[in-house]
Write a structure and sequence with these properties.
The chain is of the alpha+beta class. About 40% of the residues lie in helices and about 20% in strands. It folds into 3 domains: about 1-215, Glutamine Phosphoribosylpyrophosphate, subunit 1, domain 1 (4-Layer Sandwich); about 230-360 and about 480-525, Rossmann fold; about 365-460, no CATH class. It has a 6-stranded antiparallel β-sheet. Strands 4-5-6-7-11-12 form a 6-stranded antiparallel β-sheet, with helices on one face.
Length: about 525
Amino acid sequence: MCGLAGIVFTEDTPNIWTMLDKLSHRGPQGASINQSGAAIFGVQRLAIRGLQDGTQPFLDAETGVMAICNGEIDNHIRLRNQLAQQGRIVKQETDVAVLPDLYLTYGAAFVAHLEGAFAIAVWDPRHQTLILARDRAGERPLFYHIAHGIVRFATEIAALVTDLNQLSIDSPAITQYLQYGYFTAPSSPFTEIKKVAPGEIITITPHAIENKRYWHWSIEESPKHKTTPAAFDPIFRNAVRKQSQIDVDFGIFLSGGLDSALIAATLRSLYPDKKIVSYTLRFLETSYDEGDEAEQVAHLLQLDNQVVYVTPEVFITELPQLIRLVGEPLADPAWIPTVLLARRAAEDVRLVFSGEGGDELFGGYPTYLGAQLAKRYQRLPRIVRNAFKTVIHALPQSDAKIPLSFLMQRFVEGDHLTPYARHLLWNANIPPALLERLGITGTTIDSTLHAQHTHTQARLLDHLQRYDFEHSLAEGLLTKADRGGMSAALEIRCPFLDLAVMEFAAQLPARDRVRGFTTKVFLKHYAAR
């Protein structure tokens, strides 16, 4: 993982160094820049693959095509072999070195050939074209700004702000942030700064800009068929294997949940004799704490489990520093514990594995159960539902992580809504009623109140999972993982977001994801095999 910065259609070397300085926490191995015609690219590097010959930017001497990448290209060996068959020999062993030749072979379509976690910039001086692209799930960020014919881009907003004189607050984006706790692409806190979306490629020339989605998770379109844990096992093992074939030591964030336990078990199976360090958070509030379960998994798999204790006081000291560091807010309180855990892990390793994506792909959230219950609840007479609502709102509040009273109150508040609007309400950071008290109206939930969705229960589950994959995962959880890890120069990889795993999950029948009161049906069967 690295920090990227670039300025195109002007020669402004001093500012590129200023931008890179704001990204120094992401790349302790140092900064480097290169120039090709009217483009200057710079990188703050955290070396994971190709420790000796991986210095970016990479430049094709004959054409001037220049490329930089933040992240990992997991299928680089296969791509290298394909290029060799076409007469293009990539001399450097590092994964990112394949990018210039891959672009020269396939043009802008090169990005569809990549697998991994990446944010990429490619400059082609022959056609005065800049290409920006992000990986399919959105594991790696990329922001850009266009004004007066000059394009600037960077991994984090803080690096762009250093090179811009005036910025204006994007009020609709702030409203969205207050509602959900994150900014969805292309929005950012500033009107002038845009975010490249997951699975998007942007082509910029002096005269035009083209935005195109090269991939989306096709759970709604994919044909469904029954499958077995035995069929999934080589797919998941290969995902973990590819991401662990690196040149530095790795560990794992072990939460006590199913997803991280599966990754840990697969790592132990692949590397039976290797010392593997796991890192676990412990909380004084028992509803947050999964430390006992994590300790059991670590003992069973013979992991060296390191524990980080989280207290309320650390939030006060850490939050201002983190906001200054990355240049944007993120309303996920787990951001700070992630930073603390990353800081501890960075003392031992440069990369850790984490379980992000398992819930969205395999149907793990309680809101999916709520969607099934809501259809039956709405059949009750209104007088019964109103009486039930009165009782629910009289329940005492709690400081627990997700108290039952909170879940039930959110449930009854959405009893009159369509399934989609109800799901948005349940996931809202601040519900519409409270936003209205703040003088904020016209939220995303409001705009869906009268929408008519006639999903079957199975199709509804597809729809809700895709929404969570493209929104709360991509814009919330993965933002937290990226910024949290890189605050300590630690790369976080998510095997569940491997392309083959995502495509496998999209084909699972609804009954193999949520059945009755059970979530993650298939994944639990896989774990129990």
